[in-house]
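To illustrate the input format used throughout this study, we show a single complete record. The first block contains the structure-token representation of the backbone; no residue identities are included at this stage. The design step must infer an amino acid for every position from geometry alone.
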């Protein structure tokens, strides 16, 4: 077959462009990425050979080989992994299949539009750009590869100019060799960093790839004076060149070492390498268990939540090993979904190498390991909350949402999740703007207070301006701020804490039973009775926009507010549902009017002159729209509202 030229997919071009103009300042990571791909390819060959030994063609000596060539300005990374055929070269190298990389490009575009710093380490750190990182240091890349079990080998070449070529070639063994034609900044003594220097390459392998399971080898050439038969150097003899192949990585999986022999930095480096993290993890868990099920687990809470943690394309799960041999990536069946942010691995001799995902789900051993790990993580979180509040709040800001979603999802997964998590959740409080636990809230509640009050809005400032907050603030009652749409769902699922029910300040009767509140309640009922016609007519003017119109006992200086009925979803929940494109759930809206506001007397006057007048109808509508706006809900017809306000202002 003649040499074919292919165009890169548009997104690949974009990524290549970024690599060439190097947004990464950390160029050296290209080696880690290519070694990691080589190691994955060997994993695949190893795994497939378990069922078809002939694939290995007698070559069972798995290894990755680095060959620097200072004269030619080249570096080759070769593996005897699974290799690729023509279609796979096109599919895997020419296009970007990974949603993560696509998302990376989108975020990058957004950052550019917003003029953000493109070298932002945190942002870039969330994405492994894999093979393409080769173009940060090379202006021309050649891949020679032969798929295990196939005869034909292929050569792929690109100078990152928008296209690549593929042609047939010869290769006597399976695997892939990637040759980088290095840019001049990256080779030679004068270079910024010399990737043809054996010692530099050795340093980088130790730094990033020390735990790669397969030997990473390289030839070192020495000049040596010949020795006589007693081992003494022969004086005056011409030096001879000697080549020694050295293995650069230690390969010993960190988790098999004794905990006491492992330094914190080693754990950190391991996680960064194994899980493509850029920052040290927040916490590391290293557990060994013997007994009914034997296992070693090395887990970590990464420093930051990935950008897509709550999106469907995020794949949670731990790596599974059996006797240090890799079985699978992203095993979801170990930890509950609310711990989806955990990264790590489990190595157990009780797991079978050839187990299918389906059988694994039913594995008793796996379930037992999962339960033990969950317990251990929850215990650590509880201890941190008690002893290291600063750490816990940092954790909470990154992953709190995951626990709250876990509580809400316990409707499906079983109510014991609520018991496990309810003491680990935090909310901001009106008391001092700090985060509090439910226990802390309840413990400092005055005895007369029977409920846990909360308010929902998108931010603290909006809540603090809610008319409903006025009374509670005046009475010094603490209110929890629920700022995330999931919060109210979680709270409603917990239902009550230490027998104290939760109560939204935007819902039904506040249930305050101090003397003053009782007094206000009585007075409000009387005003309501005296103005029953007015209330009825406002309701009639608003039609089915509201369920009811009432005189308010909760407002001090504001004219109106919108609350939801005791039963059914709240206004915030309704908004969350409609954002989820699920507008079925509607809150029963009740418009409350402050009888002590001057607007109330004006309303009465207009009502008396004629309940069917346009003016009365306009007033009712404007009142309702105001209440909506206070809740952060846009009116259905903003133009109509603006016109009515303008008309009134012109009077
Ligand atoms: N040495 C190799 N041997 C066989 N296949 C390879 C090799 N290097 C890359 N590939 C193939 O090319 C694909 C794309 O590689 P790339 O590094 O861009 O992404 P990835 O490895 O899938 O993801 P990540 O780098 O985030 O782990 C790989 O998934 C693999 O199928």
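Output of the design step:
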């Amino acid at each position: 077959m003649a040499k074919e030229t292919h165009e890169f997919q548009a997104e690949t071009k974009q990524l290549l462009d970024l690599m060439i103009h190097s947004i990464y300042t950390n160029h050296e990571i290209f080696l880690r990425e290519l070694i990691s791909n080589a190691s994955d390819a060997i994993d695949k060959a190893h795994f497939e050979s378990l069922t078809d030994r002939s694939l290995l063609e007698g070559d069972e000596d798995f290894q990755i080989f680095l060959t620097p060539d200072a004269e030619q300005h080249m570096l080759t990374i070769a593996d005897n992994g699974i290799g690729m055929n023509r279609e796979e070269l096109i599919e895997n190298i020419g296009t970007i299949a990974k949603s993560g990389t696509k998302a990376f490009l989108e975020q990058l575009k957004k950052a550019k539009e917003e003029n953000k710093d493109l070298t932002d380490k945190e942002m870039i750190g969330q994405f492994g750009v894999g093979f393409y990182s080769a173009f940060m240091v090379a202006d021309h890349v050649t891949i020679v590869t032969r798929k295990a079990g196939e005869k034909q080998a292929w050569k792929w070449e690109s100078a990152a100019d928008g296209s690549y070529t593929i042609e047939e070639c010869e290769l006597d063994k399976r695997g892939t060799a990637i040759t980088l034609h290095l840019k001049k900044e990256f080779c030679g003594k004068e270079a910024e960093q010399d990737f043809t220097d054996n010692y530099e390459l050795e340093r980088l392998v130790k730094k990033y790839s020390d735990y790669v399971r397969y030997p990473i080898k390289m030839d070192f050439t020495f000049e040596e004076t010949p020795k006589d038969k007693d081992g003494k150097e022969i004086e005056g003899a011409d030096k001879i060149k000697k080549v020694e192949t050295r293995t650069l990585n230690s390969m010993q999986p960190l988790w098999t070492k004794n905990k006491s022999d492992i330094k914190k930095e080693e754990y950190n480096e391991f996680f960064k390498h194994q899980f493509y993290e850029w920052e040290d993890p927040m916490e590391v868990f290293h557990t060994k268990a013997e007994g009914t099920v034997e296992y070693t687990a090395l887990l970590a809470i990464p420093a930051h939540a990935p950008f897509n943690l709550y999106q469907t394309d995020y794949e949670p799960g731990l790596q599974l090993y059996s006797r240090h041999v890799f079985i699978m990536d992203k095993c979801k069946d170990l930890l509950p979904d609310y711990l989806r942010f955990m990264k790590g691995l489990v190595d157990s001799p009780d797991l079978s190498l050839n187990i299918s995902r389906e059988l694994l789900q039913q594995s008793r051993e796996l379930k037992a390991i999962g339960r033990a790990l969950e317990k251990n993580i929850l215990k650590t979180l509880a201890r941190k909350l008690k002893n290291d509040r600063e750490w816990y709040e940092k954790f909470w800001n990154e992953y709190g949402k995951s626990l709250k979603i876990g509580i809400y999802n316990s409707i499906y997964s079983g109510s014991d999740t609520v018991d496990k998590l309810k003491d680990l959740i935090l909310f901001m409080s009106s008391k001092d703007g700090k985060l509090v636990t439910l226990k802390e809230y309840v413990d400092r509640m005055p005895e007369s207070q029977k409920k846990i009050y909360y308010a929902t809005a998108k931010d603290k400032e909006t809540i603090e301006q809610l008319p409903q907050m006025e009374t509670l603030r005046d009475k010094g009652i603490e209110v929890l701020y629920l700022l995330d749409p999931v919060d109210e769902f979680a709270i409603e699922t917990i239902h009550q804490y230490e027998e104290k029910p939760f109560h939204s300040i935007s819902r039904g009767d506040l249930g305050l039973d101090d003397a003053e509140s009782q007094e206000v309640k009585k007075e409000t009922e009387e005003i309501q009775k005296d103005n029953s016609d007015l209330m009825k007519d406002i309701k009639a003017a608003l039609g089915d926009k509201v369920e009811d119109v009432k005189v308010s006992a909760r407002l001090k200086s504001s004219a109106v507010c919108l609350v939801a009925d005791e039963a059914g979803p709240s206004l915030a929940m309704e908004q969350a549902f409609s954002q989820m494109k699920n507008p079925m759930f509607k809150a029963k809206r009740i418009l409350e009017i402050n009888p002590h506001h001057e607007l109330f007397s004006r309303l009465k006057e207009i009502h008396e002159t004629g309940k069917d007048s346009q003016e009365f109808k306009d007033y009712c509508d404007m009142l309702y729209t105001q209440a909506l706006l206070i809740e952060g809900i846009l009116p259905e017809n903003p133009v109509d509202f603006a016109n009515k306000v303008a008309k009134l202002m012109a009077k």
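Structural context for interpreting the output: The pocket of adenosine-5'-triphosphate is lined by residues 33, 37-38, 41, 79, 81-84, 92-93, 98, 128, 130-132, 176 (CB under 6 Å). Confidence is low (pLDDT under 50) at residues 118-126.
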